[in-house]
Design a protein that fits this description.
6 helices; about 40% helix; Rossmann fold; alpha/beta; about 240 residues
Length: about 240
């Protein structure tokens, strides 16, 4: 069980963490001494990921969690609270990337993307951020994309771009409502060699995780309400 803030041991929850960027974020946060809750929709994949990190002596537990299912985040938060585990760091990493343009993407696909990439983050924030505000400490990192940036042209599949633009707007609004030492930021990890990014992507998983971990462990004077790539602000 995670120790509480009295001895500065924090708990991080990472969504979509069975593999890829999310898995590497769990590894790096664990190496920094955080207790990590690794979540994913697939129980077998989650168990395998947790076992791999435990073999590296990382303090980690797993939770089956479908971010797109309304009510699932609240139920997970309640289960953790019942064990006196409060989430201090939330990394909203879960996402999907189907192809398609505005006028030809299947309505069901568009809805699924919004439910996963946008509403999934909204539900987890609503479930876990209130306790951060009560405690006066928290870090929220929304894993977005340059594809959601108006400044970078919204380049990419329509549903994905719209969902990430909405996630960016959520970041700004939640950051404006935060108080105390609670910081909410968004990150573009870049084009990363994952199952989503493909083998031709320019960046390693390790590189993709760097700025996420930086934002997840910001000091008290760190930024709030920004959009970052390689630790530098980029346009919304």
């Amino acid at each position: 069980m995670a120790r509480r803030r009295s001895d500065v041991r924090y708990t991080a929850l990472v969504t979509g963490a069975n593999r890829g960027i999310g898995f590497e974020v769990c590894r790096r946060l664990g190496r920094r001494g955080l207790h990590v809750v690794l979540t994913g929709r697939d129980a077998r994949g989650m168990d395998e990921a947790v076992a791999r990190l435990r073999a590296e002596e990382i303090d980690i537990e797993g939770a089956v969690f479908d971010v797109a299912r309304e009510g699932a985040a609240g139920a997970l938060a309640a289960r953790l609270r019942a064990r006196d585990v409060r989430v201090d760091v939330l990394v909203n990493n879960a996402g999907i990337y189907p192809p398609g343009a505005v006028l030809d993407t299947d309505p069901g696909t568009f809805r699924e993307v919004m439910e996963t990439n946008f509403f999934g983050a909204l539900w987890t924030c609503r479930a876990f951020v209130p306790a951060m505000l009560d405690a006066g400490y928290g870090r929220v990192v929304n894993v977005s994309s340059g594809s959601g940036s108006f400044g970078e042209g919204l380049d990419g599949p329509a549903a994905y771009c719209v969902s990430k633009a909405a996630l960016d707007a959520l970041t700004v609004k939640l950051a404006s409502e935060s108080r105390g030492d609670v910081k909410v930021n968004a990150v573009c990890p870049g084009w990363v060699r994952t199952r989503m990014g493909g083998p031709g992507a320019r960046r390693s998983v390790e590189k993709g995780a760097e700025t996420i971990v930086w934002l997840a462990t910001l000091p008290a004077d760190g930024p709030n309400g920004g959009f970052f790539r390689d630790r530098k602000r980029i346009p919304w």
